[in-house]
Amino acid sequence: MSQAPVNIRELLDRRKVGYSLEAPFYNSQEVFDADMKHIFGKHWMYVGVEPDVPEAGDYMTVQIGNQPILIIRDDDGEVRAFHNVCRHRGSRVCTHDKGSTGNLVCPYHQWTYNLEGKLLFAEHMGEDFDPSKHRLKPVHLKNVAGLLFICLADNPPEDFQELVDTMTPYIAPHQIANTKIAAQIDIIEEGNWKLTMENNRECYHCTGNHPELTISLYAYSYGFAPSAETDEGMKQYEEMVKERHAKWEACGLPSAEVDCLDTKISGFRTMRMPLDKEGQSQTLSTESACKKLLADFGDAAIGGLSFWTQPNSWHHFMADHIVTFSVIPLSADKTLVRTKWLVNKDAVEGVDYTVENLTAVWNATNSQDRFLVEESHKGSKSPEYQPGPYSPYTETLVEKFSNWYINRMKTLIGD
Ligand code: FES
Ligand SMILES: [Fe+2]
User: Fold this and answer.
1) CA 315 to CA 309: how far, in whole Å?
2) What is the tens place of the pLDDT at every residue in 104-114?
3) Does residue 136's CB lie within 6 angstroms of at least one atom of ligand 1?
4) Cα distance between residue 87 and residue 89, in whole Å
5) Are 25 and 33 in contact (CB under 8 A)?
6) Where are the beta strands (DSSP E) in 222-370?
7) CB neighbours (10 Å) of residue 154?
8) 111 lines ligand 1 (CB under 6 A)
C-alpha cells in the first residue's frame, strides 16, 4: 500500500448515504486493519456447516486475519471452536484444513488436549506445572440449525440470538445435519471483501452477467424502477409470491421476508422465493440436481430460501440441495469466497446427482462475480474514482450493507 495515511473517522463521517464508499474503504491498509479488528473481530461470522465435522473428533481449521481457529466436534457430539494456538509456545495445534483425531496433539512438543480443550499431557514440565491453567482458549460458536457461526469478541453481540430464533424454523426443514458436502470450491478474488459483499447484495448486474443463474430467477425479483411497461408484470409477480408463500407456509415452510440488514448489530435478511420454469432448483434446467431430496417435502418445487448475513455470508436452500457462501478477507486486495454444495447424505454421486450438474450454475456465477469484483477493485484505485449513486430500486440491499458497515464502524471506532 502506498497511500497517504487515512483518517478513518473522517471518512466514516463524510460517507454520503445512497452512494458507494470512498476509495480508501476498498484499498487502504489502515481501513483493512480496522475492518479485521472491528468487523471481523467483533461480529458473528459464518464459517462452515455441521457436515464439515460430522463425527466426534472431526475438525476443520479456518484463518481469520492473523487468528487461526479450530472447529471440532467433541465426544458428546457438540461442535466447539478454539483458538488453534498451543498454550506452550504457540504452534498451531491442527495444521490441516480438515482431519479427525481422538485427542489434539500439538506437532511441536506433543502437548495433548482433549476435544473439550483440556490439557491432558505435557511432558517435562515439572511438579509445579498446572495443566488446568493451560487449556486451549475457547471461541464463541453458535450452531444455527446446522450453519456454524463464530465470534472472536470476548462479549459477542447478544442480538445474534434473535437471528437464531428467527432463522431456525426457516432453515431446520432443510435438515443440514442430514446432509453431506458434495462439493466445496474456494476462489480468491483480487478485490476487497466489501466489493464482494456489495456485489452479492444486488442483482442489477444479473441480466447482463449471469446467463446461467437467471434461468431460475424471476427478473421481477431483482427490483425494478416503476414504469408503465413493467407495472403489470411486477403486480403479477407479487401476487404469485403471495400465493406461493401461503402454500409453503401451510406446509410448514416459513417463507415471508424478514429484513434487518441494517437495523441490528447481527444484521440479516431472509425470504423464500419462487423459482422460474420447473421451479425446483438453481440448476441449468431448473429441475432438481439431486434425486434424493433433503427431506420429504412432497413437492420439489418449494422455491429457494435465501439467507443473507452481515458481514460475510449468503445461502440458498432448495428442496434438493443447499449452497452456502462465506467471505473471508485475506488482505485489502484479496478475498476468499468459499462455496459449499450440500446434498442428502444418502445421495450417491453418479446415481442421484453429478457434481458437474450440481455446481454448474454457481461455478459459472462465482467466476462471473469474481470478474465483476476485480474490475470494480481496479477502478477504485484510480484517482478519478468517486463514489457513485446506488439505484434506489435495485441496489437497496447494497445500501443496507454499506449503511450497516459504516454505522458499525462509527460505533466501534468511537470518536
Ligand atoms: S508449542 Fe505446542 S507443544 Fe510446544
Ligand atoms: Fe452476481
Assistant:
1) 9
2) 999 999 999 99
3) no
4) 6
5) no
6) 258-259, 268-273, 304-309, 313-317, 322-331, 334-344
7) 7
8) yes
The overall pTM is greater than 0.85: yes
Query: Which residues partner with 338 through β-bridges?
Result: 186, 326
The residue whose grid cell reads 481469520 is 64
Q: What percentage of the chain exceeds 90 in pLDDT?
A: 97
Tell me the C-alpha distance between 274 and 127, whole Å: 66
User: Which ligand places an atom closest to the C-alpha of 106?
Assistant: 1
How far is C-alpha 299 from the geometric centre of its chain's CA atoms? 28
- How does pLDDT run across 358-412, given as a tens digit for each residue? 999 999 999 999 999 999 999 999 999 999 999 999 999 999 999 999 999 999 9
| Ligand 1 near 86 CB (within 6 A) | yes
Q: What is the DSSP letter of 21?
A: P
CA dist 28 and 60 (Å) reads: 31
How sure is the predictor about 3, in pLDDT bands with cuts at 50, 70 and 90?
A: low
- Residue ranges of alpha helices (H) inside 172-321 are 193-200, 206-209, 228-250
Give 20-77 pLDDT, tens digit per residue. Answer: 999 999 999 999 999 999 999 999 999 999 999 999 999 999 999 999 999 999 999 9
Q: Grid coordinates representing 340?
A: 459449499
State the amino acid at position 11 in one-letter form: L
Pairing of strands 179-189, 334-344: antiparallel
Nearest CA to ligand 1 atom 4: 109
Q: Take residue 405 and report the three cell numbers written for it.
A: 458497515
- Taking only the tens place, the pLDDT of each residue in 308-317 is 999 999 999 9
* Torsion sign over Cα 61, 62, 66, 67: negative
- Confidence band of 5 (pLDDT split at 50, 70, 90): confident
SS3 content of the chain, % helix, strand, coil (to 5): 30, 25, 45
Burial 78-104 (b: 16+ CB within 10 A, else e): ebbbbbbbbbbeeebbbeeeeeeeeeb
Q: What is the mean pLDDT of residues 158-181?
A: 98
Dihedral over Cα of 148, 154, 156, 158: its sign: positive
The residue to which cell 464502524 is assigned: 409
The answer to whether the CB of 134 is under 6 A from ligand 1 is no
Atom of ligand 1 nearest to the CA of 90: 1
What pLDDT score was predicted for residue 415?
Answer: 81
Separation in Å, CA 45 to CA 33, 326, 370, 392: 17, 8, 21, 28
